[in-house]
Amino acid sequence: MRLTVRLGARSYPILFGRGAHGAIGGLLAGEGIRRAVILTQVRIAALHSNAILDSCRAAGIEAAVRLLPDGEEAKTLAVVEGLYRDFMELGVDRWTAVVALGGGVTGDTAGFAAGTWMRGVPFFQVPTTLVAQVDSSIGGKVAVNLPGAKNVVGVFHQPRAVLADPACLKTLPEREYRAGLSEVVRSAAIRDSVLFRRLEGSLEALRDRNEEFLEEVVVRSAAVKARIVAADEREERDLRALLNYGHSLGHAVEAAAGYGRYLHGEAVAIGMAAAARLACREGICGPRTLERQLILLKGLELPVTISDLSSGAILNSLKLDKKNKGGMTRFVLTPRIGHARVFTGLDPVRLVEAGFQS
Ligand SMILES: NC(=O)c1ccc[n+]([C@@H]2O[C@H](COP(=O)([O-])OP(=O)(O)OC[C@H]3O[C@@H](n4cnc5c(N)ncnc54)[C@H](O)[C@@H]3O)[C@@H](O)[C@H]2O)c1
Ligand SMILES: [Zn+2]
After folding, report:
1. I need a surface site. Which of 130, 220, 224, 310 has the fewest CB within 10 A?
2. How would you classify the pairing of strands 96-102 and 123-127?
């Protein structure tokens, strides 16, 4: 299966399917690239780097592997500086590709390094987590963190191609996998009611990580992101903001709980549940639209209610959220499944209250 992210001269393919990693060598060679730096993490290297290295070798591409630390801590300027030193030593230039093999942490850090080194060198994404396959590898937003502030130092640097193999998802830790499903629900809720219905009817296939079904789910979710990015690459219209469904409150919950307690996708599940309750209370959606979202999230064993946190702390982080542009509170809500819109003028206190309901 193949999708295209349509961005004029910078358009790029997303290749899905078992064995997709084997295409990397041919893609690089096709772009006149002679060398590759594979950036990954130790566990991912052990599980999933062979196909990439074999494919590079077969295409005559000289490949070097460099390991990033694990976890959100890897997304720092210090790690990026280490990468610049590697790039200098390896002579990374316009004919060298930076290949991110891993989840969103690897993709964001590698992409930021690739996007800033010599004002941008060719970049390829090989996403190995569900979050990365349906979300972070597509769209070219790459960033690192400062202490206490996520994703604040970044650039736009689109990849030349994305290669997503659903077989990788089999080795994901259970909790990471479930948290990734939250972003799938997000994409379905905002723009794909058919996918939403497929998810509702396939909890068992999702639980078993049925490869065929996962490929369908990943392709449809990635397609939502690809369409939105193509229409609003730099979040200049409301469209790209729709991807933030569940994220305003989600980020606030993550921050108030202290990073690490909730996985991002778990906090987003709470955020979507709260947004759905608020929409229902305000008469923006009907009770069935609310109920379907709660049932699906619970069916995926994702949290839908804030526990053990004070509403004051959450409200403070919500107000600091960079997405509340110019002091105006903007919430993404779904009047109907698959049809999200941005609403303004709603009281953040009501959203936080909705997060505490069960
Ligand atoms: N750039 C964007 O548009 C965008 C969008 C969404 C999220 N993000 C970012 O993505 C990051 C989260 O990404 P993530 O959820 O992929 O987490 P992650 O990259 O930290 O990966 C989660 C864990 O799974 C391991 N792992 C990865 N693939 C594996 C596999 N196939 N088998 C076994 N283990 C594997 C990783 O080593 C890591 O320990 C956050 O920093 C977030 O800000 C960016
Ligand atoms: Zn997210």
Report:
1. 310
2. parallel
Three-state DSSP state, 146 = strand
Whether residue 119 lies in the annotated active site = yes
In angstroms and rounded to an integer, the radius of gyration of the C-alpha atoms of the chain is: 20
Question: Where does ligand 1 bind, in terms of residues with CB under 6 Å?
Answer: 41, 43-44, 47-48, 70-72, 75, 102-106, 108, 128-129, 131-132, 135-136, 139, 141-142, 151, 168, 171-172, 176, 264
Query: Please, which residues have CB within 8 angstroms of residue 171's CB and are 6 or more apart in sequence?
Result: 47, 48
Q: What is the pLDDT of residues 312-355, one digit of tens each?
A: 999 988 887 645 556 568 899 999 999 999 999 899 999 999 99
How does 4-24 read in b/e, with b if 16+ C-beta sit within 10 Å? Answer: ebeeeeeebbbbbbeebbbbb
Query: In this predicted structure, what is the pLDDT of residue 319?
Result: 81
Nearest atom in ligand 1 to the alpha carbon of residue 127 is: 28
For 151, phi and psi rounded to 5 degrees? 55, 30
Give the chain's length.
358
DSSP-assigned beta bridge partners for residue 99: 38, 124
The Cα 299–Cα 199 span in angstroms is 10
Measured at the CA of 195, the angle between CA 252 and CA 207, to 5 degrees, comes to: 75
Residue 284 is classified by DSSP as S
In contact, 80 and 110? CB cutoff 8 Å: no
**Helix (H, G, I), strand (E, B), or coil: what is residue 209?**
coil
